[in-house]
Amino acid sequence: MFCKKWTPAAVMALILVCLTIPAGAATIASWDFDAKADTPTQGVGAASLVLASGTWLTGKAPTGSPYPSYAWGTYNYPDMNDPSHTRGVQFSASTYGYNSVSVSFDSEHDVGASRYVLFEVSADGGNTWTAPNGLMDNTVLVVNGLMGHSDGIWHHFSFVLAGYDNNAFFQFQMLAVWDPVWHHYEGTMGIYDSQQNIYWENVTVSGTRIPLTDIQKITEHYIPDVPDVNQPCANPLNVNGFTNINFCAPTSALNITEYWDVIKGIGLPGHVDGSPNPGPTSVLQFIGWWMNTNDDHAWDSQNGRCPYRVNGYNDLVNKTTNHFNGTALQDCTVGLAQYVRWDDTHDFWANPPALLNGKKGYDWTVTLFKNPHLQGSLDWGSGWSTVVSEINAHRPLIAVWDWWNPINPSRNWNDGFTYCDLGPNIEPPPDEHVGGHAVTIVGYIDDGGGGMGRVVAHDNWYTTDRDIVMKWKETGAPFTHCAALITANPYLAPTPGTLTTAVGTWNPPDQNVNRGAAVVMAQISLSASNGEDIAVNAIKLTAAGSGNDWWDISEIDLVWDTDNDGIADKGDVPLLIHMGGYPGNNGTLILKISGDSTFKIAAGTQENLLVVYHISPLMLATADYRFTLDGVMATGCTSHLQCTVNNGYTTSCKVTVKGLELGSPVRLSHVKIVCDGLLVRRWRDWPSPRLCAQELDDLVITDCTTGFYVQEIDGSAGMRLVFQNGPPSGAEAGKRLLIDGVSFTSQGERIIMVSSAQVTTNAPQRVVAMPVRSVGGGDWYWNPIMHSGQQGVVGGIGLNNIGLLVRTWGKYTQVNSTTFTLDDGSGTPLRCEVPSTVTLQEGWTYVVATGVSSMDMIDGQPTRVLRLRIQDDVQSIL
Length: 878
Known about the structure:
Blueprint: E1 26-31, E2 42-43, E3 46-50, E4 53-58, E5 70-75, E6 88-92, E7 98-109, E8 116-122, E9 142-143, E10 146-148, E11 155-160, E12 171-177, E13 198-209, H1 248-264, H2 280-290, E14 313-315, E15 320-322, H3 329-341, E16 365-370, H4 380-392, E17 397-401, E18 406-411, E19 418-422, E20 437-445, E21 454-458, E22 468-471, E23 482-489, E24 498-503, E25 511-514, E26 518-528, E27 534-544, H5 549-552, E28 553-560, E29 573-579, E30 588-592, E31 600-601, E32 606-615, E33 623-636, E34 644-647, E35 655-658, H6 668-673, E36 679-681, E37 694-695, E38 699-704, E39 708-712, E40 718-723, E41 735-746, E42 749-762, E43 768-769, E44 780-783, E45 788-790, E46 805-816, E47 819-823, E48 830-833, E49 846-858, E50 861-867, E51 874-876
Parallel strand pairs: 19-22, 24-34, 25-35, 36-37, 40-42, 43-46, 48-50
Antiparallel strand pairs: 1-2, 1-13, 3-6, 4-5, 5-13, 6-12, 7-11, 7-13, 8-10, 8-12, 9-10, 14-15, 16-23, 17-20, 17-23, 18-19, 20-21, 21-22, 24-26, 26-32, 27-30, 27-31, 27-33, 28-29, 28-32, 33-35, 36-41, 38-39, 38-41, 39-40, 41-42, 44-45, 46-47, 46-49, 47-48, 49-50, 49-51
Helix pairs in contact: 1-2, 2-3
């Protein structure tokens, strides 16, 4: 969800402080300011400045305070003779459902800060204020709420308040006031200074809970004591790259976990948020982690992020990523269910942060209902029915709105709610993954005729009231503004599925392969039980064999064998590319698949997974490799819980790496047809016969201007070169070249990384003539998974000629000073590029162009391009 948020600069979130409260009393809301924020550390409420300024002072806390790290310092009070009773601090906390309400806090004044502060209480949301009868403190006399400090040390104040029980609009404030005798501001122990601080700490509202059956209900369909925690998250876990925005989904979920864990307090689900409950803003960090909120970094690197999520997903086939500020809809349900289940023995292979103290795990049923335009089934009627059934069962739920813009607020003093209209769309339109803003639904108001009415929500914004009432269906709208609903039922435990693993039908036999080769090590068969679809998240491999698995294996791929042929080919789906081998020789490696449903097995069906090794070309003498499948992490797509895995798979085939296979010498066509990592060297100069090298024929340079290309002397194949240390001295078109290097692939084009090169004699440059439509050509033994062959270009036909020197002709259209296109009427214009030393003429109509057939990735598509070299490479013919 992308969440709009307006907050004053001083508004942030807090962590918990343990407070001493009267026996039998419960904390309604408390603030300790240790997170340098003014939201409550426990319970529901808000704090704000009244025309003053605020800061967070470390070390300013009462002696013996459990967390003496920060206090709220407030300054910028009126000048000495300015009006009294205008600046200070203000707090609000609904006491609905409580009686015997009391307020307590600690306060300390700088020597020049105002000596006198007035404590006032409001029962109507701040419209009118009353100073309660005074109490005698052991140091300070309080009369009609007037507090006078005389010694500049911390003092504790406590007020038992009659007449403010069961009140949704309870507020209190402490404002600086004049000396009652001199009628101007007085300093505490010195000359008054409006910029000196009055400090506040351990502000607490307490009360005794009224049994729910005894509460006079505001409305028939309302859960009165669901928390209303506000975002942003003050202390997001630094392992997840969070920013302090777009935390609406975790905050809405936190309202629900706090409701069941703290408010209900019936043992089910006790200690979901830890024991003793650490407070909302501590828990918020962890729910956000499990939902992978704000994962705006690459998923591949992990960096401690929660895996298997829609946010952070990398599509290896289409080369797309999905990293955004906010929470993906699917991640809400998976994240909440797995956060609740998380305990000492259930970490979902996710490497989560340290477990919350005392946290227990439970199996909740968490369900996502989507809107049709978000590829789901939520519509006006079914959505409203879900809201009604959940609220009637006293279960708060999450609603994700396309956009959330409450306007025209109007407080209804009869039911205590704030009624709003839905304003214009100010959020980006949702897509299939993301809604607009998540809120917690705590009630509904029937229209009286059995139709759809209004919902009551906690929207986790500071700028709105606690209970916001919005229409469920706007007249004339094409669809409900609610994009999705997420329900959480702690009383109903889902049944997770079972996954069975076995050796695949096409499991390869023991094999002999060359150094630098890519090889399918095993086909693993995975079968889902009938209960639910199952997402495979990760597999655990333990290596064995005589080879050094850390040094000798350059890459490990996981591939979805969609055609079940045991071969990693173009029709299959790469799930993970792991660069590098195991963490050590004969080590254990967990390969994590990005995206919670990237590799999904439908209930009652079977899919196959291929494990592909890429052998390093620099490995030592003959060695063999094998691995054991030690485990599979699988998650139910309905339950979101970890599936039981019946492991019938024990070991893979053995792969033995041997010597030369292609014969010597090899050609560029040989280099292209085999996998990346083939080592080629001048055989007569080869110093180390224990390494596997292929002797490569002499090559002729065709281009060293816009790129560096060589081809065979007979013009049968060409290839691009990249030099580690720059081209050799004397390199120019028409010269023979001897090279040492290793083959690799970049954006579909096969290349040799040259470590050393030597220019020799002259050689002819053979040119192949072809029409425009044939430049580039189609795929030639191309396998993107095994990194072999040569990819063709979009619309390419005929033989692949990437890397060859070619000549073509057609109608000339200049694009800029270094680019033009050729069109021979085939409908496939060819992009031609020249170096800055070549002059293009605007008056040309038809030209003949000579250059190297190459390719560029444009908009993710392999697009052909002709790279010209010198002025004579372009000749006007009309």
